[in-house]
Amino acid sequence: MFRFIILALSTLGLVSAGCDNSCSGHGTCNAKTKCTCYDNWGLGLAHDTGDCSQRICPYEFAWVDTPDKFGNHHKYAECAAKGICNRNTGECECFPGYEGKGCQRTTCPNDCSGHGICTYIENMAYAAVPMDAGNGYYLNQDPVTFPYYYWDLTKTRGCVCDPEYADVDCSKRMCPYGTDVMDIRNNMLAAAKYQTQKLEFVADSMSGFTLNGQTFALTFKSKLNETFTTIPIVFDNTAGGFHDFLIDIQLALESLPNNVIDKVEVQGSSLGSSWGSSQTYSTFVNISFVGNNVQGPQHLLTVKSIVCGDGCTPKLTGLELAPKSQNVTEVVLSDFNSFECGRRGKCDYTTGLCSCFHGYTGSNCNTITALV
């Protein structure tokens, strides 16, 4: 009996010594005295099974790595090769500029300084307004984005600044833009041209080729990325109401806050359809930006033609427009330019105010006070 007890204890000792530290409770010991670790457990940089005593951190596409024999880059790497794995917690301690599980995405500079949002590269929109992108479709009233297929999809991010803020970290206040009053045109004898935008309204057949009585609005985006939308405008291209309709558009634009559009001139015309003289097929409205605050090229207007019902502002019935119709185009280029502080002053990026050079004044330094 004594010999049996000694043999049993010896056998237990051999079994317990079969796998190091009994796989630390994070794996199973196989017949070859080797630990088969549970997920996310291992040992060392090589992640050998060992005694399964250390955590393995999340893997993501590497920001920078050496190529394999096929020349492939950006393979999976622990902490995306931009952080150190904490073997006790299994969490990546990312280097500055990187964050997230496995350090898989970039941070935004200075967290966009509290004046912007941090956006993935694939979500960044083209052009200031949809119409600037050249798509010209009535139904597309959202910023234009493009499919993005590169390796840093859902990884690289940047700042999209709030209105009146700019630079890569949105830390600087923008200053007013204006024309350089001392700029010389090629032909000073010819009258200066103002930018003119043409709005085309094409009624859909479902509306009986008439838009009369329906309401829409116009949205203007300034050079400081401020967005302003007019009050509802009632569409009326009848013989007796078309002139008032053009005046309503002018007043709506000139009534926008902060005198952002100080003066416009509005003209228009209608083309009769084959459905009768009382109905029209296309209506054209030309808007010329002639005020001091809007000299030079401006962003194209956006026609708010979708329904905006209860709880929405401005409340609109919308326009039943023909699909895929070009509705806003630039038909006259401006002879004026548009520069920060009118190119006749320095911008104080802390306050967003122009410090005009001697002899110039105004919010955008485009008023001459003295001729030298």
Outline of the structure:
With 372 residues, this protein is mostly beta strands.
Can you count the helices?
Answer: 2
Instruction: Based on Cα principal axes, name the global outline.
Output: elongated
Low-confidence stretches: 12-16, 273-280
If strands are numbered along the chain, what order do they take across the biggest sheet?
20-21-16-23
Domains counted in the coordinates: how many? 5
Strand and helix order: HEEEEEEEEEEEEEEEEEEEHEEEEEEEEE
Helix percent reads under 10%
What is the CA–CA distance across the termini?
120 Å
The helix-and-strand class reads mainly beta
Proportion of strand residues: 25-35%
Gyration radius, rounded: 33 Å
Number of strand segments: 28
Q: On the 0-100 scale, what is the average pLDDT?
A: 88
Descriptive report:
It is a single chain. With 372 residues, this protein is mainly beta. The protein has five domains: 2-56, no CATH class; 60-101, no CATH class; 108-173, no CATH class; 196-332, no CATH class; 340-368, no CATH class. The chain contains two helices and 28 strands. It has helices at 2-16, 242-254, and strands spanning 27-29, 35-37, 41-42, 54-55, 59-61, 76-78, 83-86, 91-94, 98-99, 105-106, 116-120, 157-161, 165-166, 172-173, 177-178, 196-202, 215-221, 227-229, 233-234, 264-273, 276-289, 302-304, 328-332, 339-340, 345-348, 353-356, 360-361, 367-368. The protein is elongated, with a radius of gyration of 33 Å.
